[in-house]
Design brief:
The protein contains eight helices and ten strands. By secondary structure, the chain is an alpha/beta fold. The longest helix is centred in the first third of the chain and has 17 residues. Bound molecules: 2-phosphoglycolic acid. The site of 2-phosphoglycolic acid has 6 residues, from loops. Pathway: Amino-sugar metabolism; N-acetylneuraminate degradation; D-fructose 6-phosphate from N-acetylneuraminate: step 5/5.
Length: 239
Amino acid sequence: MKVIVTENKIQGGAKAFEIFEKGIKDGAKTLGLATGSTPETLYQNWVKSDLNCENLTSINLDEYVGLTPDNPQSYHYFMQKHLFDKKPFKKTYVPDGMAKDVAAYCKQYDQIIKENPIDIQLLGIGRNGHIAFNEPGTPFDIGTHEVKLTKNTIKANSRFFDNEDEVPKSAICMGTANIMQSKKIVLMAFGEKKAHAVKEMIEGPITEDVPASILQKHPDVTVIVDKAAAQELDDKYKN
Ligand code: PGA
């Protein structure tokens, strides 16, 4: 895994954008995109740029079950607001949180990913080492699935809602197997609260207890961390 340590999340977002921009100029057509506070600085750079996205397809990692696309807490809404409204794509896929048959819908989403192989996948990481909503204990070989959110994730995400009870209890989420099939992966993590998860991901054993640790097996992963998120890493990673 290649590790890039930046001064702060502003520089981290600029670095991540450089990688996406170069990848797109080199021919990447399908991007796996992510939501949350972490990618915001990347999207800020993206919308300010002159990058044309009209030939690109995006596939998002996840969506809450039960939220409509116009709900301000939905990941559909997040993507519209932070990227798609300002940079129209040829086609964008975000899981349908209102799907009636969630299990059947997950299979459809796997099919979408199969038909549109992801060239560059963006990821964040949770404090417990989750990637997307793949929580500790999730099998590594799983495709798109419905996830019951853990108490910790509900608590962490409640900052975006009026109170914890309003946080949906489950989500539709790409599995670790989908993520590992991407040609290239860019994972961003900022702040000291992510420091332990970052260390476990890079230096710890590969274990389903730390879902992000599977990335050690991927041939092309770039991790962009600020100094705070890098603080527990071995010195050899601190460039
Ligand atoms: P955050 O979430 O970007 O809001 O910190 C990342 C994650 O939990 O994957």
